[in-house]
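Q: Convert this sequence to structure tokens.
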Amino acid sequence: MKWKNVNRAVIGIVVLGLAAPALAAPLQLASHQAVYDLKLDRLKDNSGIEAVRGRIVMKVEQQCDGLIVNQRMVLEMVNFEGSVIVSDYNQSTWEDNAGRMMRFDMSNMLNGQLIEKYSGVAEHRDGGVIVEFSEPEPEEMELPDRVIFPGEHTRQVMKAAAAGRSLLSAKVYDGNGEDGLSDTLAVIGKAQTLLSPDAEIEALTGRTFWPLQISFFDLSQQQTEPDYKISMKIFDNGIATDLHLDYSDFSLNGKVSNLTILEKENCS
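A:
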């Protein structure tokens, strides 16, 4: 089980639509908090897992100078011996509206024990992207200039969707430490309108959404199959519903159990 990949799928949600700075109408992001209940879809052969359940809590705040995203993903897994494994992932990011700089702070715990923690700043500079870590120890990493952050990736995905494009490829650094760089391929479906939603997402009635799937590839390996995939419905205000997280050992469905639209910051 690649624990880093399991937890990074929550970042994929942000990459795909929850981390976009406000766009020109009608593509505007809604500051919001969404809770997703995760249930097992299917287990894959030889996974060693008997049961999985979990929850994602995502809070997105569009501010005048940038975007704050706080997210937590907790998974409870039971193996064939009956042992319970609890994965608890937290990440907070701030990204400026121009997509030039991102501050990040993430931690990952397994059964109450910290297994990784990263804090730092990633910034576009002349000729490349520089990532400066302050935790676990001061260190610097250089990435190609064409690498983008989640907010900029979201802008590109939403613009592609609005223009009727079906594919978007990009290299994205998401703040997950030294392995936070992925090659991504987004597949965008046809625009639809939400007409009869469940009560939990009634606030989205009448809004346009696109079916969306993104695949994540490990750039450190030459591979044709993605490490994992996520699917969702992404709305024109940046809210995502109907999650599907597809890992190497199992897949999960995520349904919105609570959605709160937050007040916009008043920007002069």
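Residues 91 and 200 are 25 Å apart (CA to CA).
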